[in-house]
Amino acid sequence: MIIQHLFLYIGEVAMFSLLFAMGSILVTWLGLSAVFVGIGLIVNRAFRFKLEHAEQIFTSFWMGWATALIVLQIWHLRFRVDRRVFVLVSVLGFAGLWWNRKDIWELFSRSLSRYWSFYAIIVIFCIWLSNQAIGIPKNYDTGMYHLLSVRWASAYPIVPGLGNLYGPLAHNSSYFLYAAMLDIGPWTHKSHHLAIGLIFLPLIGQMLLGCVKLIQKQHEWRLARLLNIALLAAVLYMTNGGQLPSLGTDLPIFALGVVISVNLLSFLESPDKPADYTVFFITVLTVVGVTIKLSFLVFGGMATLVAFGVWIARYRQQRRQNLSSTRRIPNVFIWSAVCALVVMGIWVSRSIILSGYIAYPSTIGPVNVEWRVSREQALAEADWIRALGRALPGFRPGVLEGWDWLRPWAEQMAHNFVEVVAPCSLLTLGVALLILRKVFSSKEHLKPAHPPQSLPWLILIPAFSHLGFWFFSAPAIRFAGSALWVAGAGMFILALNEFHEPFRRRLLYPVFALFLLILVAGLRNASWVHPGSDHGFHPIPQIELKTFVTDAGLKIYTPAYGDRCWDAPLPCAPHPYSDLRLRRPEELSSGFIRQ
Asked: In what residue span(s) does the DUF8201 domain sit (predicted)?
């Protein structure tokens, strides 16, 4: 009897801790989402973009989130990322909510009864995501340098020459500033449970809303909504396997690629979509994506060029029809150019401070500062990233020369169903549909759609451009972002769109079944996370540390085993240099140089 009561008590405690951890995450996500939506609504006001549709809540979130990352980069030049900047961002967000309170309430009142099924489904996904977020971070790089980057941002303003202490700390990702902003109060040393889930929750929300609208309004064929549904399987797969409580930059880049692609496709297929705001929206998300991960420049840059090119073509057509004033071109160009120049200027300045290069680990643009990382170290780190993308574990010979790496790389890719096989299958199926339409175009039910739509095909340009760059640089699947899925799903739905409407309507539910099959295959190994020992949260692994003393007497913590510092005290580096010293003795904030 005593043992039975003991087990019941333990079960009740475990259940309470699980509910506490998940509830804490959900409440925090809700509050932070409201803050970012509010900031985005302030930006919307500048474009006279009235809140009328539910999708605008999600675009407002992304605009607000991107704006917050810009603010954080400026703030960190002078101050450490702490509760002060969190309060600043929160005040801006709630001011935006108050300013737009009437529009928000009207939209919520209309959508609650119309899309009740959406709200019911999103609650289920909120519970699932919050459970996945309480787990142990399983992204390897999170233990190597992600958590360290957050600790440095929380403890000090930007530190000159931080790359001399440990090269990856100079990668200059603004995403870690965002995580550091969340690392306050009860979430100190726990921001990794919040950061990625807060991004994926609205991403999944906008996809589910697109699914509900497509089912309820089958007479309104929208490619952007269909793309949302096609990419849902990939997005949900990304939340599995311990990635949600990690701080990897690959998932935010994946999310931004999806958001940009969906909004660009909506812009291409809908001439009545607010053009100025959409172009500016894509520009802002692109430049912020580049500050998170430099390789996003290809995907985001091509998407921005496509958006601007179509905008200019439509503008000229409107001018010929006297439907537009001459003031619109300078406005959208000026706003977008100023945003890009300011944000990239700040990012380059930060990179110079961290490493002495404008885009470390690239050695292009070295600056003559005393803390500049050695050229040999920068080249070695760049080669390491390329080797990581091409090689299998234990496969290193000739990986950077010739094509010996290609066969084992291809064999590895062929075993990745959700991230490689599924999107490539959709791509192949799309090409097959185009051939079918061409060969049997005389058949009544296979006749092309009228009028033909050519602009939506431009959505494939960013994806294929990025895949080309990715293949020849560092073709690890995690570095591909959303490009492979956008290319595969985009080709499939665009090919389907080429057919006459009755034919593609008959294929709608089989298409749903296909995407559901991919989703089930991707989540077949998904599991419920049990409560951890830290009030329901799984704590960061604790490691044994050693002390390394440089020639100048600087003490640095190093892992006793392996190359991951995890949440170790500062300064920590797995492989410190003996010639490392501080610019000013006893001041970590002064920066690091090598003698």
From this structure: 22-482
